[in-house]
Amino acid sequence: MSGGLLGRLRIEGPTMPEAMARIARIITDAPEAAANAGIVDLAERAGTSTATVTRFSRLLGFTGYAKLRVAIATETGRAEQARWRTDISADIAPGDSMDRVLDVVATADTRAIQATAASVDTAAVERVAEAVAGASRVELFGMGSSGTAGREMAFRLERIRVPVWFRPDSHSALTNAALLGPGDVAFGLSHSGRTREVIETLSEAADHGALTVAVTSFGRSPLAEVADVVLTTSVHETTFRLAALSALHSQLLVLDLIYIAVAQRTYERTAEALQVTVRAVAAHRVAEPGRSKPRAAPARPDRPQP
């Protein structure tokens, strides 16, 4: 599955009202034709009204159908210029060579990351980073593969002095969510956006005034509905790796973007923390030949004056 606008329509289209679902299906089945279709033509093909097409466009965040057409044309143009050598829609067979498996897996992950990057809401990332940088407490909740992404994010943030915890147990997650308040941040990670424990925990955090952030592949999901900020990811399934298992790299991309944005906003504190923590574990590393001291954290880069 491709990402961006078309990927979003493939994911969210079936969950939309019937008339809008037909519009989404027409666009995803033939995006080039949709990009060249007028609003009346698209409405007739979908068996609906032009007003519904306008509402559909606004639901996706566009001011009207004209802007939606431009977005479709832009995305299909990019896709045409970036044809992949590997047929990633094909299954991995038991007898496939390891070179073939490597091509399929690497291409699928690369496309998922690029699709996520193309659709990420950078303004939302900045809002979350600002909140995390000044938060008195940050909590991350996720189960299964999404929990792996949550653990990694907690590890990175605690390394730069952010008061952060990852809760793998649902009871612990709920009780700690109940202790959050204004000025705190809670993350809920779920590919499907339908993991009951994560939804309940994020909802609890929201009830107590924390800023709630959902990281999910489904922007129209129960998890997204309880979140203040929704950051969507894209996935591409391959044989032996269902969507939930394929979402990890895209989730890490979004979380890494937030981590870097937090580090930018707390540069002095981050540089000092990284230097201290590198020094703390230096004795547990095998020394490099000719090097007696651990690498220091980089100094703040000088910016040219305008």
TrEMBL record:
* Location of the SIS domain: 128-268
Tell me which Gene Ontology terms the entry assigns under biological process: carbohydrate derivative metabolic process
Annotated ranges, domain HTH rpiR-type: 3-79
A GO MF annotation of the entry reads: DNA-binding transcription factor activity
Q: Which residues form a coiled coil?
A: none
* Statement: the UniProt record of this protein carries the keyword Transcription: yes
Quote the PANTHER family the UniProt record gives: GLUCOKINASE, HTH-TYPE TRANSCRIPTIONAL REGULATOR HEXR-RELATED
Q: What is this protein called?
A: DNA-binding MurR/RpiR family transcriptional regulator
Native organism is Phytomonospora endophytica
